[in-house]
Design a protein that fits this description.
The protein is mainly alpha-helical. The protein has 2 domains: 141 residues, no CATH class; 47 residues. Helices cover 75% and strands 0% of the residues. Helix 3 packs across helix 4 and helix 6 packs antiparallel against helix 7. It is globular and about 60 Å long. The chain starts with 14 loop residues before the first helix and ends with a helix.
Length: 191
């Protein structure tokens, strides 16, 4: 275990524990993993606090690639170094890859059926609800954020307006608002 791990809460006990945990996480993440990841890592396993989760998730979002894969690499690396990062990555990708390939074969047979299209639309609505519920659950962690609740809400609202209403590209919104948030946080943390 390296020096970055937090000794005050539980952590993965072995590489096998890490692999199995991230495989289980990946298998639950249909349509949106934020809710599942937060529940598993913060509430059930307690490998992270809400605040640590928000900080790590924010970093995972700005890195290229899928957010949850980035998070798995960060957590695996934190506790077991490069070996842990690769083990967590393998846990995230191996079994789900096989299942997705099998589902693609099945979907190819039934793609023309109206029921298949309706089922996919219904899953999209459920995924949106899970993400919204997780956002509300994590809202309390903003009280401890260095920027303060009002500024966090203002930045979140600006992000929503820019992406959902103005339809600006995600990259530019993240770069612009993310840079602004970093500068503001740096100013507040500066001694």
């Amino acid at each position: 275990m390296n020096s970055l791990s937090a000794p005050d809460h539980p952590h993965p006990q072995s590489l096998r524990d890490l692999f199995v945990s991230f495989t289980w996480l990946a298998l639950q993440g249909f349509g949106g993993v934020l809710a599942v990841v937060q529940r598993e890592l913060v509430e059930k396993k307690r490998w992270m606090t809400r605040e640590e989760f928000i900080e790590d998730w924010a970093v995972a979002q700005i890195m290229p690639g899928p957010n949850v894969v980035n998070l798995s690499l960060m957590i695996g690396g934190r506790y077991f170094g490069l070996k842990g990062a690769m083990t967590a990555l393998a846990g995230m990708l191996t079994v789900p890859l096989v299942l997705v390939l099998l589902l693609a074969l099945v979907y190819a047979q039934f793609a023309d059926q109206p029921g298949a299209a309706g089922a996919l639309r219904g899953m999209g609505a459920v995924a949106a609800g899970l993400i919204a519920a997780t956002g509300l659950k994590l809202f309390g962690a903003l009280l401890k954020n260095v920027l303060g609740l009002r500024l966090c809400v203002a930045l979140g609202a600006a992000c929503f307006v820019a992406i959902a209403l103005l339809r600006w590209p995600l990259f530019y919104v993240l770069f612009g608002l993310g840079s602004l948030a970093c500068v503001l946080a740096y100013q507040k943390l500066k001694p």
